[in-house]
From TrEMBL:
Coiled coil: none annotated. Pathway: Bacterial outer membrane biogenesis; LPS core biosynthesis. The lineage of its organism: Bacteria, Pseudomonadati, Pseudomonadota, Gammaproteobacteria, Cellvibrionales. It comes from Microbulbifer elongatus. Its EC number is 2.7.1.166. This is 3-deoxy-D-manno-octulosonic acid kinase.
């Protein structure tokens, strides 16, 4: 039991055989996903939630950004399979879970090569139970000091394991069960040896920008300078140990 991989024609799939079987490629088909999710559509920036064999799962498709993304939204210049975005994120999640870090369990990834030089792909992860994003939580009311401290310490914990999150924002942080923090969406992230101080500080600064942005955009968003200082103090204390 463990992780299995197969390739047929131009399609490659890697999957966790403790959760899904070799027929898991059907989970990536838009028509099947629409039925399983109650009408969910595979769109840019939108995760599709669905259930399979009693397990709550999350599907996402990788999309190009920037100017190139306006022309070819779902394909990328071809890379060796191990370097494709979905393979990298799948394996990064595996490695972080082996470190004991709170991230979603990777379930399956699919890459389709598009000769001569392009590919597209998708990733399926296990949904974090009883969770909401940091943005959603702050729209419901203020968080207590202990949660801000725990979040600061958690970010430091990832950084002490040399994990770089390419887009640490309020939508990529989950609060589960009202007390446990998770980080999600590690597309373009990396485990670096070592993680530079500049990259670590860049992650923290990115989160602050996200908090400020949503504080000015979302009704009822409860975030204060005091909250940030608690998070920052906890982060620095953990990094110093």
């Amino acid at each position: 039991m463990g992780y299995q991989q197969f390739t047929h024609r131009r399609v490659s799939v890697i999957y966790d055989d403790e959760l899904v079987g070799s027929d898991c490629e059907k989970l990536f088909q838009p028509a099947w996903l629409a039925r399983a999710s109650g009408g969910g559509q595979v769109q840019r920036g939108t995760a599709v939630m669905f259930e399979y064999n009693g397990i709550q799962l999350v599907f996402k498709r990788y999309h190009r950004g920037g100017l190139a993304g306006r022309i070819v939204k779902k394909t990328y210049l071809y890379s060796p399979l191990a370097d494709t975005r979905m393979w990298r994120e799948f394996n990064m999640l595996r490695e972080m879970r082996e470190m004991g870090l709170p991230v979603p369990r990777p379930v399956a990834a699919r890459c389709v090569s598009l000769p001569p030089v392009a590919y597209r792909g998708s990733l399926i992860t296990e949904r974090v139970a009883d969770s909401q994003t940091l943005a959603e939580a702050l729209c419901q009311g203020p968080l207590d000091e202990g949660l801000w401290e725990a979040l600061g310490a958690l970010i430091a914990r990832f950084h002490r394991h040399n994990v770089y999150h390419a887009d640490l924002n309020v939508h990529n942080i989950l609060l589960a069960g009202g007390s446990d923090w998770y980080l999600i969406d590690f597309d373009k992230g990396a485990i670096r040896s070592p993680l530079s101080r500049q990259d670590a500080e860049g992650n923290v600064a990115r989160l602050r920008r996200s908090l400020d942005k949503e504080a000015g955009r979302l009704p009822g968003f409860r975030f204060s300078e005091e909250n940030w200082q608690i998070l920052l103090d906890a982060y620095r204390a953990k990094m110093a140990t």
